[in-house]
Write a structure and sequence with these properties.
Length: about 190
C-alpha cells in the first residue's frame, strides 16, 4: 500500500492504516533516535511522535514526505530530551551542591549556633575547673585580674600584697592553666576569660 493512501486512511481515523504506518517506520525511526539517546529514551521518543501523528491525524499533509516529517519530529523530540537532561543535571547539581553546603554550614561549629554554644559551654567548664584547681591566693589574683579586669596595682592594694607578688601569681596561674588546658585553648583565652 502506498504512503499517500495510508495517510488518507489515517486522516479518516483508520486504526489499521495507522498500525501499518507504524510497522513501516518504527524500526528506522527508533534506530535514528538511538543516534542521540539510549534505547529506552529512543523508544519513548518514537512512541510520542506516533502518538502526536495520531492525535493530529487530520492535519497530515499527503503532499509532503511522511518519512521526512517523521524524521524531523524524532530529531526535534530527541533534542528536547537532551536539553531536559542537561537542565535537569544542572538543576540537580546546583541543588545538590547547595544542600551539601547547607549541611557543611550546619555542622561547622563556627556557623552553627547550637554547636558553638555547646563547645563554648564545654570549654568554659574546663576553664572554670582549671581556675578552681589553682592555689587559693593564685586563683584570687587571677580572678581579679582576668575575670574582673582589675589592674595589678589595685589588686596589690586590695589584697595587701606587693605588685611583684601580684605579677608572680598571675604568671604562675597562666603557667598552670597552660598545662591544664593545653595550648589550643589558651590561644582563645582572651575571648572566653
Amino acid at each position: 500500500m502506498d504512503t499517500t493512501s495510508l495517510i488518507e486512511r489515517v486522516k479518516k481515523g483508520d486504526r489499521i492504516a495507522f498500525n501499518e504506518l507504524y510497522r513501516q517506520y518504527y524500526l528506522s525511526l527508533r534506530s535514528y533516535a538511538e543516534l542521540f539517546l539510549d534505547e529506552v529514551e529512543a523508544e519513548d521518543v518514537v512512541q510520542d511522535v506516533f502518538l502526536n501523528v495520531w492525535l493530529r491525524k487530520e492535519g497530515l499533509d499527503d503532499s509532503q514526505s511522511l518519512q521526512g516529517y517523521l524524521l524531523r519530529s524524532v530529531y526535534n523530540s530527541s533534542l528536547n530530551v537532551l536539553k531536559k537532561k542537561i537542565h535537569s543535571n544542572d538543576y540537580r547539581s546546583t541543588y545538590e551542591q547547595e544542600i551539601e553546603e547547607i549541611g557543611y554550614r550546619y555542622y561547622d561549629p563556627d556557623a552553627n549556633e547550637v554547636i558553638r554554644r555547646l563547645y563554648n559551654q564545654d570549654l568554659r567548664s574546663e576553664i572554670n575547673a582549671a581556675i578552681n584547681s589553682l592555689p587559693t591566693r593564685c586563683r584570687e589574683v587571677f580572678t581579679l585580674s582576668y575575670l574582673h579586669d582589675i589592674p595589678s596595682k589595685e589588686i596589690s592594694l586590695q589584697l595587701g600584697i606587693s605588685l611583684s607578688t601580684v605579677d608572680n601569681h598571675i604568671y604562675s596561674a597562666l603557667k598552670l592553666l597552660r598545662k591544664k588546658l593545653k595550648i589550643h585553648y589558651i590561644s582563645k583565652k582572651d575571648s572566653f576569660l
